[in-house]
Give the backbone structure.
Amino acid sequence: MAFDWRTLFGGGPRYATIATQQSGGGGVAGPDTKSDDIACMAHKWELIDTVVEGHDAIKRCGERFLPRFEKETEAKYRRRLNDSPWRPIFPDAIDNITSRPFTSPVTLAGNPDQQMVEFAEDVDGQGNSLNVFARNEFDQAVSKGVTVFYVDYSRNVPRADGRAKTIAEERDHGVRPFWVHIPVCELIDVRTAFVKGREIVTHARWWERPKVADGFFGNLYSSDSCC
C-alpha cells in the first residue's frame, strides 16, 4: 500500500517548526520537527548551558555577552575581551542550592531486596549510584526548570533454541534495566495525556548523538538519530 510520508505527521501549527512559521507556511513536519514548546525554550537552555560551562564558553561568544564599542578596532576589542573578568555567580548559586537536599545521601526506604540494592549502586550502567544520579538530575532540574531521564533495558539476545531465558541466564549475561539522562537541549517533542486522572507521557522524541570509530585512532559523531 502506497502512502505519502509527508502527510504522516501532519502539517498543523502544533507540529510546525519555527522556520516554517516564519516562512509563511508550506513546510511539512517530520520526526525531527520540534514542538513549539521545545522550540521556544531552546535558546534559553542554550544560554544556561553556556553560562554554566563558564569562562571559556563566555569568551568564545564574543560580542554576544561583551558588545563592541563604536569605532573600536578588532585588536582593541580582543584585548578588552581577554582582560574582562568572568565570575561564575550563576553556577555557584546553582551548586549552593542543589547541594542542600543532598547533605544526606539518597537511600532506599524500607527493606529492599538484594537485587534492588545492587541496582541502586549502579543505576545507569556507568557506575553512578542512585545518590549521584539523583544529584545530577536535580542540578539539571534547578538550572533548566525541567529534567528528563529514560528507563531503558539491556538488549536481551534470545536463546538459539527459541526458549525464554531464565532469570539466572539473564543475570549471567548482564541483562538489566538502566537509567539514561536525556539533555533537555536534545528534546524534540514531549506530549502528555490524562489517563485515569493522572498525567502521563504518551509520546517523546529526542536526538541521540552516539560516537563511532573513525579508523583506529579517531572518532566522530555519527549521523543524528531521532528516537
